Amino acid sequence: MFAHNKRLQYTVRVSESNPGLANLLLEQFGGPQGELAAACRYFGQSLADDDPGRKDLLMDIATEELSHLEIIGNLVAMLNKGAKGQLAEATASEAEIYKGLNGPGNDSHTTQLLYGGGPALTNSAGQLWTAGYIDNVGDPSADLRSNIAAEARAKIIYERLINATQDPGVKDTLTFLMTREIAHQKSFEKALYAMEPNFPPGKLQGDPRFTSVYFNMSQGDGDMRGSWNSDENFEYISDRQAQRAVDGGDGTATVALQSYEVEDLQAMVSRTVSDPNIDPQTGAELGAGDVAVIK
Ligand code: MN
Ligand code: MN
Fold it and tell me: How far away, in angstroms, is 62 Cα from ligand 1 center?
């Protein structure tokens, strides 16, 4: 079960109304790297995991992410508070209200007009939140890697938001949220390496002929060597011939069909065959009149 505590995980102190900034913060409320997406990701993984340590870790972090959603939602609500009252009560002139919604660097009109200043489950551009942001596949070695990357992305978005505001209270709260994503990344990395082996993801090993091969597919000025393609770590293949039909076959695609399948297919092929020897007049030429004759 979930139980709610009325005190936030971190105190929210906003210095002044700023609907434009509120809109930017929506990125972490209903955006792809936001707190709801994070909470749903780890919540679903926890329910499905049979390992007691990971199950607990994932539920702890999922619940913390919901607490972050509450914090960022409160930031949005506080930043919109002044404009919300003004618009609802029409206490300022139309011009002043219009400026408040559409002033320089501020396009908060959708948040204000449609959502009344409350935190909406959209990103900063109004794109609706979608479960498509959740990419769990139900394998811990794959999901933990995805979680590590998700925490890295969330950290970067918070960093950009911190760089975009001068409000010390907002900066302080965002710094807490950013810092927690660093802690989560560390826990997920530890959990990944607590599982041995954890690479490659899943149970099947790759075909040993290809697991440590590097194909130099893009060739020319700018070819570079490093540990990611070094001779110590990889078999480096630049020869174009050696990059083709690497299984040793003829590099064509074949399928064995039943005789009735072959008959149907041949009928279709002969019905749709193209004749390279005819040059029909087409609508394009008729439409062009005398201006353009293709010949
Ligand atoms: Mn978070
Ligand atoms: Mn996190």
Answer: 9
Q: How many CA atoms lie within 13 A of 155 on its CB side?
A: 14
Task: For 160-170, write each residue's pLDDT tens digit.
Answer: 999 999 999 99
Q: How far is the CA of 230 from the centre of ligand 1 (A)?
A: 38
Q: What is the pLDDT of residues 2-48, one digit of tens each?
A: 999 999 999 999 999 898 899 999 999 999 999 999 999 999 999 99
Domains in the chain: boundaries:
19-193
Query: What CA–CA distances, in Å, run from 115 to 101, 196, 225?
Result: 13, 49, 53
Which fold would CATH assign to domain 19-193?
A: Ferritin (1.20.1260)
Ligand 2 centre distance from Cα of residue 48 (Å): 19
Pairwise CA distance, residues 35 & 75, whole Å: 13
Quote the pTM value.
0.87
CA of 6 to the centre of ligand 2 (A): 21
CB 96 within 8 A of CB 191: no
